[in-house]
Structures are given as structure tokens and as C-alpha cells.
Amino acid sequence: MREPQIQESSKTSYFLKLPLEIRQEIFSYILPTTFKDKNHGIAWRRGHIALLAVNRQLNEECLDLMYGHSTFTIDVTYDSIRFRYQWVLPSLLCPNKRYPFLTCFPPHLLRLIKYYEISVEHVDGYTGMIKYNCQGPGLTDGLRAQVQKLVEVMVTAGELHRVKIYLSHGNKVLKQIRTVAVFAVERGKNAAVIQTVLDPFRSLKGVRQARVMGTDMQDDFARALEKQMMAHYS
Fold first, then answer.
1. How far apart are CA 56 and CA 20, in angstroms?
2. By three-state DSSP, how is residue 36 classified?
3. How far apart are CA 113 and CA 54, in angstroms?
4. In terms of CB atoms within 10 Å, which of 99, 119, 145, 189 comes out highest?
5. Rounded to two decimals, what is the model's pTM?
6. What are phi and psi for residue 48, nearest 5 degrees?
7. Which domain of life is it from (predicted)?
8. What digits encode the pLDDT tens for the residues 71-85?
9. Whole-angstrom Cα distance, residue 73 to residue 225?
């Protein structure tokens, strides 16, 4: 009687025997990843995610590359925190979509993200009444609360590799009017108050590279915030 053939189910594939760095290089040609486009900034290179279904090891390695090595662009406003997803077409056009960041991804994937580019938008009182039915200190407090929500998610990642923050505020037309000398003192006072919306970022201590900039941003405030965010590496 012919004996049944015994298959070795524990046999490891040749691909999984490759060094992790080589596997990641191969993954980068297949999976969605980000790159910096000279005309549009951070954009996604669209790819395929079928590899995630092969086995648990490849699933973990692919997720680490997609989330842990890609730069996520986040827009923070008075009433939302949105992930900006944009990609470059062969025609060089760059369509984009925005998704609610905190609910779009499950917590275990949010913890993998290590690279952030964050745009924080503080509007003037006139625009605030039109868009949010709010003005004055309420605009600043509401935006700071949104920043705090984002930071609470970011700290779950532990060590962050790069965080770039840009603060914009005001109406472009009103800003041009206020460039005259008579408004200089008032503009400086407003900037000092508005930039406090970034205070929650001070609780991020494990950032390797931090960069803070923005409209009328006081240089001393920006450098001090960067230093606090990189406290574990200074």
C-alpha cells in the first residue's frame, strides 16, 4: 500500500527568509505609500493591498510600511480633524479627498503613524460667524480643543519620527489691510493669543524632528515648542 506523502506545513517561503529591509523595499513598489510632489506637497502613490491577506506576518509588515513610513497630512479646524488624501494622476492632476481622521482608521492603525504634516487653521471672527456661528475667544478655545483631541491620538504612537505643524489664521483681505503700521501692535497681540491653540502639542515629548511655523508666528514661541516636542532627544 502506498504511504501518504507528508507535507511540511512549517516550511518557510524563500521570500520570508529575505532580510526585512529587502522585503520592505519590495513592498514599497506594491503598497500605497507617500512621496513629496514638487507641485502638490505630500501625495499618495496608489498601490495594491492584496498582500495583507497572505498571512499574519506579511499583514503586520505591510501595515507597518503603509502607516509607519508614510506621511499623513492632517487639517485641523474649529469643527473637524480631517485626513487629506491626495494622489497624482498620469495627467499630473492631483485630486484629493478629506476623511474624518479619528474615525476613518481603527485605533491600532493610528498607533502606527510616525510621520505627520499638520495644518491648523484659525479663522478671523467674520469668517467664524459665517462658517461656525462663533467668534472671539470661542474660536480659539474650540480650535485648541480639536488640537487636544489629535494630540491624544498621537501620543499613543509613543515615538514619532517627524511632526511638521503649520498654523494659519485670518482672512487674506483683512490681513493685507492690517499690514499697515497702525495695526502692527494689535496684530502682534492677536498672534500671541492665537498661537496658544498649539499648546497641546507640548505634551508630545518623543518627536525626533519637529518643525513649527505659521502666519505671524512668533519665532521664540515656535522654537520653544519644537524644543519641548523633541525633549527626549535634546
1. 15
2. strand
3. 23
4. 119
5. 0.86
6. -125, 145
7. Eukaryota
8. 999 999 999 999 999
9. 20
Q: Three cell numbers at 99?
A: 476623511
Which residue reads 480639536 in cell numbers? 146
Q: Cβ–Cβ contacts within 10 Å for residue 29, how many? A: 9
H/E stretch holding 209 reads strand 207-214
Contacts of 28 (CB under 8 A, 6+ apart): 65
Q: What is the pLDDT of residue 182?
A: 42
- What is the per-residue burial (b if ≥16 Cβ within 10 Å, else e) of 71-95? bbbbbbbbeebbbbbbbbeeeeeee
Q: How many residues does the chain have?
A: 234
pLDDT tens figures, 194-234: 899 999 999 998 899 999 999 878 999 999 999 999 988 76
Q: Which grid coordinates are listed for 103?
A: 474615525
